[in-house]
Specification:
about 525 residues; alpha+beta; Immunoglobulin-like; Rossmann fold; 3 domains; 9 helices; about 30% strand; globular
Length: about 525
């Protein structure tokens, strides 16, 4: 879809009980394009802005590989505000005039209350810096992922969102909650108390890891369809990969021990495949030896004692997430705000190296990537590799009814959606939905291009929708297909708004590829509210 050009192809919604099984010829791509977004700094840590294709060399699986596509993307100069769409138009993709997007994830779930308060002050200062001009989104992670602001340039609005966000309860504790209490009771009671304490801490850790990884995967799906590099700045106290870890028996699994490295790797690789780089800012500030992880763990004698855990397991998580996506970790600094600013500044210039992988080489394996710059003293950063799989989403990413997918706080952008909404009559709204061709699969049969999709457009309340999905069948002749490839498709639908409904949701799923596009309009659904900003 190019800009806001309205397609001349209009699809009519139709509820189809079943689609006859027919022989169809699917037009498949003979290769897959892999794009590697690279940041390059000089020896002083400043971004290099004048590199060309000839300055880079690329290796894939240890072998030299030609760079078949190259581009350099730069943010707009400070003080220039990109044009905004009309208030009644909403899209699940960012506007094209800002190629490099920044997401600040303020992690209250895995950070102590004291560190959260300090980080909040630093973020307020960051968003008053007029020199930072990237399009930025601000999310908060508590017991669930929450959007404070989604991709805007207005720094004052970001600062206001931080200031208005209420203080969160303390989810993370340091060390044993029993403290010296266990030392004042009989050995048997101390052992039972220690075991109970470990169970509580392990359950809390498991909850934090599950919610955090789910949030990272949600963010990956949210920006997957947006072209260009995205930087996720994760302001956090970190979380463990291993739950139930006993430092005295490092190589021995104990009952209840769980290693979540595989799940964490999957989440970070989903971000990497969505061209997202994770820069981690350690919200704990400067760490000293006496702040190491003290946990009441069972010693070799069977008693529970407090053991200094010399390895910072939270830091290991930060390093792994950043390394996998080509990011970096800002640690042992009390100037958290400056660390965030440096991460934003680094994303202002991005080089994209593209290469094609033949379909015969899509073996489903992970292939490492190495990028070098001929200029000495440079520090290139990019993701560590790519999964050689066709562009088909996994069952985990596409499963579930459309109503449940709309319950996510963030939209899905595999298929681009742009929504125009107007009041039609009392409690009735007219929706005009422009659907981009990216992510949609059509097959050719007897001169017609056909596709089957699941579709839903309805009003809802706080993420809950009662309207079931419908089947949408598309059949285009040659001229209409060419128009579709240039501009996408348009769906017009009138929906009714029930009592108490406070949002509109639109969702589409490609039956062939599993690609999904979702969009939620968070407004009071009334004629007076149409045209106001979200």
């Amino acid at each position: 879809m190019q800009g806001y050009v309205r397609s001349s192809v209009v699809m009519a919604l139709s509820l189809i009980a079943s689609v006859p099984a027919q022989e169809q010829q699917t037009i498949k791509s003979t290769s897959r394009l892999v794009q590697v977004n690279v940041l390059v700094r000089d020896g002083n840590g400043n971004p290099l802005t004048n590199l060309t294709k000839d300055d880079f060399t690329l290796q894939v699986s240890g072998k030299p590989h030609p760079i078949q596509l190259f581009s350099a993307e730069r943010n707009a100069a400070p003080g220039l505000t990109p044009a905004q769409p009309a208030p009644q138009i909403l899209s699940n993709r960012s506007l094209p005039d800002q190629p490099n997007l920044v997401i600040v994830l303020f992690d209250e779930l895995n950070t102590t209350a004291m560190d959260v308060a300090t980080a909040r002050k630093h973020l307020l200062h960051v968003f008053t810096n007029p020199e930072l001009n990237s399009r930025t989104a601000l999310y908060v992670l508590g017991n669930e992922l929450k959007i404070l602001r989604d991709f805007i340039v207005d720094r004052a609005a970001l600062a206001a969102a931080v200031a208005a966000h209420p203080s969160a309860p303390q989810f993370v504790t340091i060390g044993s909650e029993l403290g010296d209490l266990a030392d004042a009771v009989a050995p048997a009671a101390a052992t039972a108390m220690g075991r109970a304490d470990l169970m509580v801490q392990d359950a809390r850790d498991a909850h934090r890891v599950r919610v955090t990884l789910g949030a990272l995967e949600t963010i990956a799906a949210h920006v997957a369809g947006i072209p260009g590099r995205k930087t996720l700045i994760w302001v956090t106290g970190g979380l463990p990969f291993i739950i139930g870890f006993d430092p005295e028996t490092f190589n021995q699994a104990r009952v209840g021990e769980r290693n979540l490295y595989a799940e964490a790797l999957q989440a970070t690789r989903m971000l990497s495949e969505s061209d997202v780089t994770i820069d981690v800012v350690d919200a704990r500030g400067v760490q000293t030896d006496d702040q190491s992880d003290l946990r009441r763990r069972r010693s070799a004698s069977g008693r529970y004692g407090e053991t200094a855990f010399k390895v910072d397991r939270n830091y290991d998580t930060m390093v792994a997430a950043a390394k996998e996506t080509g990011g970096e970790v800002f640690r042992n600094t009390n100037d958290i705000g400056r660390a965030v600013e440096r991460a934003i500044e680094a994303s202002s210039v991005t080089y994209t190296l593209g290469f094609y992988v033949p379909s015969g080489d899509l073996d489903g394996r992970f292939h490492p990537i190495k990028v070098s710059v001929k200029q000495r003293g440079t520090q290139p950063r990019c993701r560590t590799g790519f999964l050689a799989t066709p562009d088909v989403l996994s069952d985990k990413q596409v499963s579930g009814p459309l109503q449940s997918l709309l319950g996510s706080p963030l939209s899905r952008s595999d298929i681009s959606l742009r929504l125009e909404i107007r009041p039609e009559a009392a409690n009735r709204l007219k929706l005009t939905v422009h659907i981009g061709p990216e992510g949609m699969t059509l097959t050719e049969e007897n001169g017609k291009w056909n596709g089957t999709f699941e579709w839903m457009a309805a009003s809802g309340r706080n993420g809950a929708y009662d309207t079931p999905g419908r089947q949408l069948k598309v059949s285009l002749n040659g001229e209409a297909y060419r128009d579709f490839m240039a501009h996408g498709l348009t769906v017009n639908q009138i929906i009714s708004s029930g009592e108490g409904d406070n949002e509109v949701g639109v969702a589409i799923r490609d039956a062939g590829s599993g690609a999904i596009g979702t969009l939620r309009l968070f407004r009071r659904i009334s004629p007076a509210a149409i045209g106001t900003q979200r």
